[in-house]
Design a protein that fits this description.
The complex is a heterodimer of chains A (109) and B (631).
Chain A: H1 7-22, E1 25-26, H2 27-37, H3 46-58, E2 62-67, E3 74-79, H4 81-106
Antiparallel strand pairs in A: 1-3, 2-3
Helix pairs in contact in A: 1-3, 1-4, 2-3
Chain B: H1 5-12, H2 19-42, H3 47-58, H4 61-101, H5 104-113, H6 120-130, H7 136-140, H8 143-152, H9 157-170, H10 177-193, H11 199-212, E1 213-216, E2 225-228, H12 231-245, H13 254-262, H14 269-281, H15 295-308, H16 312-319, H17 321-332, H18 336-359, H19 363-386, H20 392-401, H21 403-409, H22 419-460, H23 471-498, H24 505-543, H25 549-583, H26 602-624
Helix pairs in contact in B: 1-2, 1-4, 2-3, 4-22, 4-25, 5-6, 5-14, 8-9, 9-10, 9-13, 10-11, 11-12, 14-21, 14-25, 15-16, 15-18, 17-18, 17-26, 18-19, 18-26, 19-26, 21-22, 22-25, 23-24, 24-25
The chains are: A alpha+beta (109), B mainly alpha (631).
């Protein structure tokens, strides 16, 4: 169950980890993808994304990798081994939490 | 100019404590804004509009900055502290590395003790090292200091003789009646305190004889020309000689004096041994034997005079004086120089004594004297012959490596001991000192350049900062950049030890060159290249671009200091060991306190003992049948 003080942070982290488990991405790409997938419901901004990315990087769940093969160098983030394990755990925690919220608001599922 | 510079600067301002992180985040944000701009451009907007919209979509820079600070807070503080610690510790580390690497004090001591030292490079380096400081030589060597110490230890024979010999050696008493009177008085006082030591009587004799007589050498085989300038002073001088000949021994405490002179520097025991050997090799203490160097001639001359004045007792005393002198020296000699002096006395006398006996119409005594002189010379000849029992290779090694032994053999081969004669050995012995100086000068110069560069780059140039490698990268550097090359170096030196170091001089030099080149050039190069490789990889991974030149250069400095700490720690003991090895034949220095010191290699010490024994036996043999004018 998500026990972090900052619920938003936990959800953001879980989403980032899940997206990165599919493929490596750079910051702008993540924002764009989230906005697209949620039909604009989630309007992530840089102030939301980068601190989160840095925190995950610091914890060793993701790793930055500058790629220079494109027009301009870009920092891609990839999931680390620890990050792969954390993705499953963190996704489940957020999911459990949301189920509980749903049960409380709308009754048992 | 970067259109996003202002907003990026504002976003990353809270991270200013960690330049590296600030730079990395700035690059990432710039890349993000570029991506945003590209998207707006693809929608048909102009460059200016696209950039404007990308900035608008970016959000509030102040909020982003605070969030970034919050996300990176602990990392930032930790890294900022590490950087600060590196900056603060770098200067003391540099000083420690410097101190570990150099040993200026020892060099100054060696330089001061060896006036024959001819290396202008060393001299200039030493004088440079002394600039702005008190001259170390002045701390210990002036007579005033020796006088003070003597007065503080008035009953100590070593301090006393040290002071009197230093006063005597200055020779300024020759033209200053006041000083001459003072020296005479002090020597007489010293003789009262040590009545069995003939040294003071011979020094007093030399003071009197210095202006009274002129002894002109006429080559190695011809007798000298003796000219009396002041008969009264000559008589007084010979009276002192007569007194000296009745005393038991002649001792100048030279080994003890050297230990005294080195004492204030508190050098390592090994260094004392090395310096002592240098000093003996350089003939520094030969001057302490000089006052009696012309005495055999004068004794024969005066003995002749006394015989003609019908004073046979005195005549016998002087004509046989060389035997007494030999005995006095032999009993207290601890060096080969002193022991060989005895043969020298016999050799000097041999030029003049038989002739004197013949002129006194005593051809029988002339013949007997010749025989006895031959007996006195024999130990030297036996000793010289005994060296042949060594194999040629061993002999060669003795000659090439043992600077002291070779220099002390010089009189055995019929040549007088002079600075010039000793110079080839000195050059060999000092090779290592010069090598040390080169290493020190190179290290000092490198440290200085690095220090200036570091100060300029890190404190003046804002785009230069200390890159912190990850724990894994640091461990890799330690293992492959420092420990691995050091192990190889140790392996080289261990092989060296296992082989017994039984090399010729040339092989030894090549071996040393290989070691020094590896330690001073290859190893730093290896380490630096590896560290630079790690830095470049780290930077490219973190920033996506090549490591800038000045940043790389600046970041090599802490690594170099670490390296210098390691190599400096190794270099000094290594050079010390080499210095010892270079001079010692068998690696044994016999320094026995409170005993008659033998300050040579084992073979040298044995040689001295053997020669002393033979001299003693020869003298005893002669003294059983003294030559007397009156039967």
């Amino acid at each position: 169950m998500a026990k972090k003080k900052d619920l938003n942070n936990s959800i953001t982290e879980a989403i980032i980890l899940r997206l990165l488990s599919e493929r490596s991405m750079y910051g702008y790409e993540i924002i764009k993808l989230v906005n697209e997938k949620t039909g604009g419901a989630f309007q992530w901004q840089e102030g939301t994304l980068y601190p989160c990315l840095h925190a995950l990087e610091e914890r060793g769940l993701i790793a930055g990798d500058w790629r220079t093969d494109e027009k301009k160098p870009r920092k891609y983030y990839v999931l680390t081994k620890a990050g792969t394990a954390a993705t499953v755990k963190q996704s489940k925690e957020v999911s459990d939490y949301l189920h509980c919220v749903h049960a409380l608001l709308f009754g048992a599922i | 100019m970067n259109p996003f510079e202002a907003i990026i600067k504002q976003c990353t301002k809270p991270l200013k404590d960690d330049t590296e992180l600030q730079r990395k985040v700035a690059l990432e944000l710039e890349s993000h804004l570029d991506a945003g701009t590209e998207e707006f451009l693809s929608k048909g907007e102009s460059q200016e509009e696209a950039e404007k919209h990308a900035v608008q979509a970016f959000g509030d820079p102040e909020v982003i900055g605070q969030k970034l600070l919050f996300a990176n807070f602990f990392r930032l503080k930790r890294r900022a502290r590490i950087r600060l610690a590196i900056k603060v510790l770098l200067i003391p580390a540099l000083l420690i590395a410097f101190l570990l690497t150099i040993d200026v004090r020892s060099l100054v001591v060696v330089s001061n003790l060896n006036p024959a030292l001819s290396s202008s490079f060393l001299t200039s380096f030493v004088s440079f090292s002394k600039r702005g400081r008190q001259d170390i030589r002045d701390v210990e060597f002036p007579p005033d200091k020796a006088k003070k110490t003597y007065e503080e230890h008035i009953d100590d024979p070593v301090y006393r003789i040290n002071y009197l010999l230093s006063f005597y050696a200055r020779k300024d008493w020759k033209n200053d009646p006041e000083k001459r009177a003072y020296l005479t008085l002090e020597l007489k006082r010293a003789r009262e305190l040590e009545p069995d030591n003939a040294c003071f009587s011979y020094l007093l004799a030399d003071i009197e004889l210095s202006d009274a007589v002129k002894v002109q050498s006429n080559g190695t085989k011809q007798p000298p020309t003796i000219q009396i300038l002041n008969p009264e002073a000559f008589e007084r001088g010979m009276a002192e000689v007569k007194r000296g000949l009745t005393q038991k021994y002649l001792k100048t405490y030279f080994a003890e004096i050297l230990q005294l002179k080195l004492g204030p520097y508190k050098p390592d025991k090994d260094l004392i041994d090395v310096i002592q050997e240098f000093s003996i090799s350089a003939g520094m203490f030969i001057h302490s034997l000089q006052p009696i160097s012309k005495l055999p001639y004068l004794m024969a001359y005066y003995g002749n005079q006394r015989a003609r004045a019908n004073d046979p007792a005195s005549a016998d005393l002087f004509l046989n004086g060389y035997k007494t002198l030999g005995k006095q020296v032999n009993e207290n000699a601890c060096t080969l120089v002193e022991v060989l002096k005895i043969s020298g006395y016999a050799s000097d006398m041999g030029k003049i004594l038989p002739e004197i006996y013949n002129s006194l119409n005593r051809p029988d005594l002339a013949q007997e004297a010749e025989q006895q002189l031959a007996i006195m010379k024999q130990p030297r000849l036996d000793f010289k012959a005994s060296l042949d029992k060594y194999s040629e290779n061993n002999r060669k090694m003795l000659v090439e490596r043992a600077g002291i032994l070779t220099s002390l053999f010089t009189p055995m081969f019929g040549a007088p001991i002079t600075g010039e004669d000793l110079r080839p050995e000195l050059k060999v012995s000092y090779n290592l000192v010069d090598a040390t100086v080169l290493a020190i000068a190179g290290t000092a110069a490198t440290l200085l350049i690095l220090f200036v560069l570091f100060m300029w780059l890190v404190f003046r140039r804002k785009n230069c900062y200390i890159i912190l490698l990850s724990g894994k990268e640091s461990a890799k550097y330690l293992l492959w950049g420092i420990i691995c090359p050091l192990l190889i170096f140790l392996l080289i030196t261990r092989i060296d030890v296992i082989s017994g170091r039984d090399y010729s001089l040339q092989v030894n030099n090549i071996r040393l060159i290989i070691q020094y080149v590896y330690l001073l050039l290859l190893m730093p190069l290896w380490s630096i290249c590896y560290y630079l490789r790690l830095l470049r990889r780290h930077y490219r991974k973190a920033n996506g671009s090549k490591l800038p030149f000045n940043l790389g250069l600046g970041n090599l400095i802490p690594a170099l200091v670490v390296l210098l700490l390691f190599t400096g720690g190794i270099l000094r003991p290594l050079l010390r060991a080499e210095q010892k090895h270079y001079i010692r034949q068998e690696g044994h220095i016999l320094w026995k306190e409170n005993e008659n010191p033998t300050n040579f290699t084992r073979s040298e010490a044995l040689a001295v003992e053997e020669l002393k024994k033979r001299n003693r036996e020869a003298l005893n043999e002669i003294l059983k049948h003294p030559v007397k004018l009156e039967p």
